[in-house]
Fold DNA-3-methyladenine glycosylase I.
Amino acid sequence: MAAETAGSVIIGDDGLARPAWAASDPLLREYYDQEWGLPVTDEHGLYERICLEGFQAGLSWATILRKRPAFRTAFEGFNPDAVALFTAADVERLLQDPGIVRNRMKILATIKNARATVALRKEGGLVDFVWQFRPVATPRPVVHTDIPTQSEESVALSKALRKKGFSFVGPTTMFALMEAIGMVDTHLLDSHRRGSSGVWQEPAR
């Protein structure tokens, strides 16, 4: 439970400063503290994140996090080689799965993205492809409204992924991905996680 506010962040009962979205829900708090914003540099993990960000479109991230174990079961642990082989019968099966988001277009996109991920291996792989769009600078937000919803790099990444056959990879979704995997650091400046990714060196304050 949040104890008090300190400007742009909320001080938790553990004395640590977090943004409001990560301050109360235990699941979001754990995700923020242990996962969000840390570099994801393996194909498997990056494919999963792209797909989950796509499923999140129009929904809350808390909803996706709660369903993540079911998503992992439904999509063979987000193994792109396995998902690339899914058939129309698999799509119909997944549409009956109450544990996941039963959206046909998003399910089809997850399969399509698996095939595109496998195909990208001939060009160096998904990880190098995505990380080449890392910007030269990262935002330094004081309050949540300082954080952009997309950037020049997320627009370019979106276009590039679409050309490679990916779906549900719009500029806003890709900026959320870039935040989640440490390509940009949008932790608020007073957050206890600011600068924790190791990707960005925080200037002296």
Summary: Confidence is low (pLDDT under 50) at residues 1-7. Residues 104-120 form the longest helix (17 residues).
